[in-house]
Amino acid sequence: MATTFRHALRTFVAPSLPNSPVDYNQGQFDKFNNVLRLYFNQIDSTVGAMIGGTGGSYLSFPYAAIQRTTNVTFTANTATQITFDQNDFLNGCANDGTDGIAVDYYGIYNYQFSVQLKNVDTQIHSAWIWLRVNNVDVDGTGSKFDVISSHGGTPGYIIAACNFYVSLAPGDTVELWAAVNNTQVTFEAAPAQVSPFPMPAIPSVVATLTYVSTPPAA
User: Fold this and answer.
1) Residue 134 and residue 65: Cα distance in Å, rounded?
2) Is the pLDDT of residue 24 over 50?
3) Which of 52, 117, 159, 208 has the fewest CB atoms within 10 Å of its CB?
């Protein structure tokens, strides 16, 4: 079993400097320098941990990586929320399998998705995918994908992928929604295989949410 190590940056505050005597005093001067030396050592240690050879290893940002391990079927021309049944990584975020990704912290996030689309019909059909926050459509996040037709008895497949920045407040939920114009189009998952070559399972949908920054000041 892998061991997980948790690191934290040490907090510190500016020291209370001793008052200088009226006349020069070697001991008092050494004490003053020692206080400053300890303070600057703390600054060097903390900044070095962030920008040194392991830069960023002590920082922790909110993120989520989730997937759906089962197929998604649709009613034609009907908006459908996509839910996720497997949490791969969560930090400062939550997914309960019935909604989208909920966040604990205010900020700008990068939402990315990847979908395996399958079409078993002999005609090309379309799928639309977009984002909602708290069940409200997010402007400019819609995408249309035309799924190739079945050919030679083999279903048509495409991978649909996009990423968008979204601004979220604590408690907000960002959701993935989709629709198709024909029920022959589905989001398909596949189990791990061993033949003709070993390969991991294929999720029908993967989504990640990564904290980017606090919003700029107005």
Assistant:
1) 19
2) yes
3) 159
Query: What CA–CA distance (Å, rounded) separates 171 from 101?
Result: 10
Q: Which amino acid type is present at position 114?
A: S
Which residue in the block uniquely carries the two structure tokens 């819609």? 142
Answer for the pair 105, 132: CB distance below 8 angstroms, yes or no: no
Which H helix or E strand runs over 161? strand 156-168
Contact, 174 vs 101, CB < 8 A?
yes
Residue 2 — very low, low, confident or very high, per pLDDT cuts 50/70/90? very low
Q: Check: CB of residue 208 under 8 Å from CB of residue 111.
A: yes
Contact 12, 49 (CB under 8 A): no
pLDDT at 74: 98
Q: What is the pLDDT of residues 71-124, one digit of tens each?
A: 999 999 999 999 999 999 999 999 999 999 999 999 999 999 999 999 999 999
Count of CB atoms situated within 10 Å of the CB of 209: 25
Query: Domains in the chain, please, with CATH?
Result: 7-59 (no CATH), 63-213 (2.60.120.40)
pTM: 0.78
Q: Using omega within 30 degrees of 0 as the cis cutoff, is the peptide bond preceding 191 cis?
A: no
170-188 pLDDT tens trace: 999 999 999 999 999 999 9
3-state helix, strand, coil in the chain (%, to 5): 10, 40, 45
Under 8 Å between Cβ of 54 and 23: no
